[in-house]
Amino acid sequence: MTNKKETTVKESRALALHYMKTLVDVARESFLILDAELRVISVSPSFYDSFQVSPEQTENKFVFDLGDGQWDIAELKKLLEEILPEKKVVKNYEVTHVFEKIGKRTMLLNAGQVDAVQLIILAMEDITDRKNLEEKLATYTKDLEAEVAKRTEQLADRVKELETLNKTMVGREIKMVELKKEVEDMKKADKNTARAETDSRPI
Fold first, then answer.
1. Residue 89, class by beta-carbon neighbours within 10 Å (0-12 exposed, 13-18 middle, 19+ buried)?
2. CA quadruple 8, 13, 16, 18: dihedral positive or negative?
3. Lower Cβ count inside 10 Å, N or C end of the chain?
4. pLDDT in tens, 139-185
């Protein structure tokens, strides 16, 4: 009975592994299939291209030993050893790491643990270019906002200058009107005085 059960489990695992490998072989993203001990069973061709490694350097290796220990990444360990066993499926888990050959890369990881067949499938989407673009855009937006704030402040100062100048000009205009009125009043007063003196002279 036990042997039959073990045979069924092995057959199920073999079938699941077959389907997983078929998926991995045609996928554009980088994929790893791991066993329960986190050893690499199968790898997608795109993984070899993306990370510049060979099958000999990858297959049957402990995942954290890949690339001479370059994959011993704290975030990846947390994903595979803590988060995944509890949740069974993890989506869009972001990891940034500097690799010796390809430099700094940002990856979006999706993982699924299939307990029935003791297999883990790990998908990796390289979002480095998108991340760099987002960072450049954020920097550009920040610089643009700073420039707009600076220009707005300069414009506000200019408006204040014009308002002050306008008040000064209006004040002068009012003063000129008042002075003209005073002059007119003085002329009228002089005329009236002269007329009065003329009228008061004896004939």
1. exposed
2. negative
3. C
4. 887 887 888 888 888 888 888 888 887 778 777 777 777 778 877 77
Helical residues (DSSP H) of the chain, grouped into ranges:
2-26, 45-51, 55-58, 66-69, 74-78, 84-87, 128-200
> Residue 30 to residues 8, 33, 109, 202: CA-CA distances in angstroms?
30, 10, 10, 125
**Homologous superfamily (CATH) for 2-126:** PAS domain (3.30.450.20)
Provide the token pair at 126.
């390289």
- For the chain, the first-to-last Cα distance in angstroms comes to 158
The tokens 């906002």 sit on which residue?
A: 145
Nearest Cα to 127, choosing from 17, 30, 24?
A: 30
